[in-house]
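Hi V.,

You were right to ask for the full record rather than a summary. Here it is.
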Amino acid sequence: MQTAGLDVLYDDTSGGAGGKFANADLVGIPFQLIIGPRGAKSGEAEIKNRKTGERETMPIENAVQYLKDIIEPERRDTV
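Predicted structure:
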């Protein structure tokens, strides 16, 4: 993801997923890329948009491009 030009915060703290999601929301992380054990087995990732609360499930290999397509226009609008 970083090689694709995206800023990444990887939460490797101990604790459960729920606490990690709450922390990401608390600090204002706009998108969460979630790949849990089931997703890893099935090859699916989930993207959560903090602003809208919407969740999108897709093949893992499409997740980075999906995020770039959302984030790049927002970056251009803020410059």
